[in-house]
Every structure is written in structure tokens, then in C-alpha cells.
Amino acid sequence: MAAKVSLEVDWQPFFLNHNTPAEGEDLMEHLRAKYGPGVVAQFDRPDNPLDKAAGKVGITFNKQRRIIRTADSHRLVEWCKATAPQQQDGLIEALFKAYFEDGKDLSQRAELVACAHASGLDGAAAGALIDSQEFVREVETKAKSWSRQGVSGVPFFVIYPASGGGDPVTFSGAQPSAVIAEVLTEQAEA
After folding, report:
1. Any residues with CB less than 8 A from the CB of 18 and at least 6 apart, and which?
2. Whole-angstrom distance, CA of residue 70 vs CA of residue 14
């Protein structure tokens, strides 16, 4: 019988491509420049492992999306955590769907406001946040801190022991749910 695990998720800002130009970049051109044509050829195949795994949970990645600046998305999440923390998972879900599935340009204010509204947040208040400089410093500080700690990709997981003592378990990359469940169970018992 598996241990009952309770957890608290804390979404943190991180910049994979901090120097993305304001107009964004074509996804395939970005992948080709960063990883080479072989990776693009594999990524573009309909039976690639990423698409197969996503399909198992009902996600269809939009390969026409652009690599975009994400600072305002991170600011929106930090604002949500400060003003309506119970809605941050809904906001993250709306942001992920808009970007990864619908190919929306989340560097655009209107798209971020739509995501906030879709997750039950006040769209006008979200727009005011985006128009401000609020949370700019917090996002930059947190993102730089993760980079200094050696994080170089996402997703990145930090799972703390339930007892509060001991070292957290960290791992990177999209892991099978069984691996994550095992680590959660181990940490719940630690």
C-alpha cells in the first residue's frame, strides 16, 4: 500500500532563454541553432518520445509556437502567489495550455490577461500588474539564484523531506510519474 503523501507546489521562475529577442524566435530555428539539425529532425517526427508522452496525458504540442520572453508570465505567477495563492496551479495550467498547445505569444499583455481571466483571476488587476514594474526584481533574483545553484533546464524538481530535516531530493527533466511517485513516497517517509 502506497503512503499517503501531501504536498505543496511552489512554482519558481527560471529563464531557459534569457536573451530571447523581443519579437521571439521560431521554435525550430531556435532548436536547430541550440542543439543542431539532428535534434530538430527527431523533435519534428510524429512518433518522438515527447509527443508520445504528452499524448498519454491529453496534450498536443503546437510545434508552430515561437520561443518568447517569459518575464511577464513569471511576474504574473508571483503576483498570483501573493494575492490568490490558491489559484496559482490554475494560472500555470492556463499559461501552459496557451503556450504549449495553443501557441499563444505570452509575451503579449492581452494573452497574459486572458490566461489570468481563464484561471479565475481578475483580468483588469492582472493587466495593471503587467503594466507595472511590480515583481521584476523578485523574478530576476529568483531566476538568477536557480541558475547559480546549477539548474540548467526545466522542469526541475526539489522535493523536501516531510520531517523538515535532511536534504531535499532534486532532479531535472520530464520524469515518468512512477519515478516522481517513488521520490514523493520516500520523502514523505523521511
Report:
1. 143
2. 9
